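User: Let's play a game. I give you a shape written as tokens, and you guess the letters that built it. Ready? Here's round one.
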């Protein structure tokens, strides 16, 4: 009996694991498939949705997704403001004529400062001379530019030259201005040349007759320009027409 029992036990042991595996195998496989299928399927679906959305979307939609929304009107306004500022900056030409170091004696010793003489013009009939003083060169130039723009004058032009001969005076400086033919150019030097160039004068003869201080020469040139008169203005003062005034001469 013992031998028969041993054989039965062996057969039962061999049959049990096979029965268990066969019964539990489909369940375990289903669970493994569900676990393995859930994770990659979700990832693939998400990736596919993102890709299809980007491919189908237009450039504007992509930009709105990635970056913040910006009103195009604001862009245009900013562009216009920048272009306007560039135009304003390009219209006026600034030239430094002189920078001098000035020392002032005070109670504690000497105080150093700088004086800048700047001429500003647009080359279209407007010009001005300014003076600025400060402890630094840059700030002195900036002050001089502001001062020159405050004291702009209009140049009376006939073509590219002045109407008549005149002498301008400022301090000990004298500057002679004479009209010239077309193609003569600007026959001048120093500060007078800079004033005439930035004022938009193309043909003129000039001569410095007094002191050659740059500031006084520039102011004398401006004085001469200020006292220039056109034929129309003189005719109105005399209650005449331009033709009558010319014939009277």
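Assistant: Ready! My guess for every position:
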């Amino acid at each position: 009996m013992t031998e028969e029992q041993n054989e039965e036990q062996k057969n039962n042991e061999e049959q049990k694991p096979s029965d268990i595996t066969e019964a539990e195998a489909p369940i375990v496989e289903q669970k493994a498939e569900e676990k393995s299928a859930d994770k990659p399927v979700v990832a693939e679906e998400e990736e596919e949705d993102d890709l299809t959305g980007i491919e189908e979307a237009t450039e504007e939609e992509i930009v709105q997704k990635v970056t913040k929304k910006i009103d195009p009107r604001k862009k245009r306004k900013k562009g216009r403001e920048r272009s306007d500022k560039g135009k304003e900056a390009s219209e006026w030409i600034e030239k430094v004529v002189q920078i001098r170091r000035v020392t002032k004696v005070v109670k504690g010793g000497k105080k150093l400062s700088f004086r800048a003489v700047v001429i500003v013009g647009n080359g279209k009939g407007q010009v001005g001379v300014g003076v600025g003083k400060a402890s630094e060169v840059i700030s002195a130039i900036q002050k001089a530019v502001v001062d020159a723009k405050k004291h702009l004058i209009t140049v009376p032009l006939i073509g590219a030259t002045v109407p008549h001969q005149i002498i301008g005076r400022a301090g000990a400086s004298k500057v002679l201005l004479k009209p010239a033919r077309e193609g003569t150019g600007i026959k001048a030097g120093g500060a007078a040349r800079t004033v005439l160039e930035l004022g938009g004068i193309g043909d003129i003869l000039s001569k410095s007759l007094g002191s050659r201080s740059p500031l006084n020469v520039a102011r004398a040139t401006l004085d001469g320009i200020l006292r220039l008169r056109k034929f129309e203005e003189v005719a109105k003062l005399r209650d005449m027409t331009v033709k009558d005034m010319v014939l009277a001469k």
